[in-house]
Write a structure and sequence with these properties.
The chain has 330 residues and is mainly alpha-helical. Helix 1 runs antiparallel to helix 2, helix 2 packs antiparallel against helix 3 and helix 6 packs antiparallel against helix 7. The protein is rod-shaped. A two-stranded antiparallel ribbon has the order 1-2. The protein folds into 2 domains: 140 residues, no CATH class; 137 residues, no CATH class. The protein is built from 8 helices and 2 strands. Its EC number is 2.7.13.3.
Length: 330
């Protein structure tokens, strides 16, 4: 399970700096864009009842826009700041539309990242500010229109922000499930690899046991016939030497299978990976354990020990699908 957590942390560390820089660039662009748009809009002749933008109005416009730089770090504080500056802007008699967008964007960020109660409170604050602006110039404003805008615009921003927040949370959950699934797959692969190694080790253990049986039989026969038939004794010793070498080789194969992983293989493969060659090298330490095709060699060794053995093959040999019937007489 640690591999999955390591991968998750690596991915998070790899994407976090780029994500942070990208968010800062986006917020900087939005802040500068709103400042520029507000200053350009303020240069136009305002509707009746509102005064033109002067130095104080320009400063307030710049401050409202620059507050958006920290909207991802402190959404509620940024919204409160921009909305308070917007109220001060309106109280000074400036056209409210000039700085109406930053508080709405702040409301969107709060709705997307904070709880329902906080989001509703911010939406109500925007609605109240909008109504306050309409009341400040009631003689030149249509209050039904002001009320409709005060309810509709914050409501739309609120709904869109909440939907965006739910989508982001769903994507985060999907990413978490993806990491968990990858961890589970890696764990299953490791378990399957361990089980396969144990199975192969058991097979090699049986092979080594057969070799040791042959060595024991040949040693007993050599000790018995050496005084009377030295040639047969030497043949038995030669068989012991060859069989012991093969037993040692099989033992080495078994130990390698039990301790070697992917990182230790020269080709990067595990024991469960398919061999790229159709005919594996018999000298390969990772080749499968000997099968029935080597039964003739085993019987020759037993016969060399003086045991009469016959082998009968029933049916047509097809790979490993053979019926073997061996009988021995001593």
């Amino acid at each position: 399970m640690h591999a999955g957590f390591g991968l998750r942390e690596a991915l998070a560390e790899g994407h976090r700096p780029w994500s942070r820089y990208r968010s800062l660039a986006v917020d900087s662009g939005l802040a500068l864009g709103y400042v520029g748009a507000g200053l350009l809009l303020g240069r136009e002749r305002p509707p009746a009842g509102w005064q033109p933008l002067d130095e104080l109005g320009a400063v307030l416009t710049v401050l409202v826009g620059l507050a958006l730089l920290a909207r991802r770090l402190a959404p509620v504080a940024v919204f409160a700041t921009s909305n308070a500056l917007w109220i001060a802007f309106i109280a000074c008699g400036y056209w409210p539309v000039v700085n109406s967008m930053p508080p709405l964007l702040g409301l969107y960020t709060v709705a997307a990242t904070r709880g329902l109660r906080t989001s509703v409170g911010c939406a109500v604050a925007v609605t109240g500010t909008w109504v306050y602006a309409g009341l400040g110039n009631a003689e030149n404003s249509s209050m039904p229109t002001v009320l409709a805008q005060a309810v509709l615009f914050p409501a739309v921003v609120f709904v869109v922000g909440r939907g965006s927040g739910r989508l982001a949370e769903r994507n985060r959950q999907f990413a978490e499930l993806t990491f968990q699934l990858r961890e589970q797959q890696e764990e299953n692969a490791r378990r399957a690899l361990t089980e396969e190694r144990v199975r192969i080790a058991r097979e090699l253990h049986d092979v080594v046991a057969h070799h040791m049986s042959v060595i024991s039989l040949q040693a007993g026969m050599a000790s018995y016939v050496f005084p009377t038939d030295p040639a047969a004794g030497r043949r038995a010793l030669d068989t012991i030497a060859g069989t012991s070498r093969e037993a040692l080789e099989e033992m080495r194969r078994m130990l390698d299978l039990l301790r070697v992983g992917r990182e230790d293989r020269p080709d990067g493969r595990t024991d469960l990976d398919p061999d790229p060659d159709l005919d594996p090298d018999p000298d390969d330490a990772y080749a499968p354990a000997p099968g029935l095709e080597l039964l003739d060699r085993l019987l020759d060794r037993v016969r060399g020990a003086g045991v009469h053995v016959t082998m009968e093959v029933v049916g047509t040999p097809r790979g490993s699908r053979r019926a073997w019937n061996c009988a021995s007489t001593g």
